[in-house]
Task: structure prediction
Amino acid sequence: MLYYLHQFASDFSPFNVFRYITFRTGAATLTAIFLSFLLGPALIRMLARLRVGQPIREIGPAHQAKAGTPTMGGLLILLALMVSVLLWTDLSNRLVWMVVGLTLGYGVLGFIDDYQKVTKRHSAGIRARTKLFWQFLMAFGVATALYYNPSFDQELAVPFFKEFTPHLGIFYIPLAALIIVGASNAVNLTDGLDGLAMGPIMITAGTFLLLSYAAGHARIAEYLAIKSVVGSGELAIFCGALIGGGLGFLWYNTSPAQVFMGDVGSLALGGALGTIAIMIRQEILLALVGGIFVIEALSVMIQVFWFKLTGKRVFLMAPIHHHFEKKGWAEQQIVVRFWIVSVILALLALSSLKIR
Result:
């Protein structure tokens, strides 16, 4: 919205700054942080008054002290994110509207899931099949829209290999949908300790902020030998707003948490990261920079597969952060170490841009 003020730069030259993505990205980040700090206390009080408390599973590490802590805190992130995005992005950009639509759609799905959990006072919400159906339906919608975008090709960018770009054709649609749904659920599985998911989410968003800006700048994209995507620079503003909203939320979510993210946040933010990854043609790189999410998801799949096959467990408990809890690691120790690993993976991802 404020982007259009640059049109009046001839009358008032300072308005020219609204033209620049770098300025608007910084402004969007600060706006989202400010909104989170402003609205956070009131939202937490409202959730507590409505008794929107997080159910805790009976099995697993002892977290009963956290039972009743308000959940659905992802609403704070989404509110700060969306207001900031609407204020600072070019609203004629189709990519922005697609990622906004997907994020809100997954947010609604997560809200319904959270609502069922708190009303039934049980950790199970929407049936897994029902949830996956709606996730794939929305993801297929975004993937199809991108596929039929005239400026969008169906070549897959492979990290570390400059010339190897397989053309997938119509098969790009199911692959892109799978990436979005996979990212959403992987983030959801990671959200199990105070602040655990938010750190890697912001680190991944920060990496994609740089990559979005680079992909939207033809000369930088050519220099880095990455795909140039028209209009993707505006996604850097979305990433900045996500980081800002995440930082504000982390103020209340750090241990001991005053509020939990809930599925309304984790499903939406994971879906947003997956969508941005396919938009800027860094689908495979998402698995590297978001390696923490991949490890968490794989730990669950390995545990389920091996238990059904042999009746034995590979991990003391899955997702893997609970395995480390069972081994005696303190909660904050796990969170900080996972963040450190996430930073290392992000640096490896960025270094891959020139190792080709």
Summary: The longest helix spans residues 21-49.
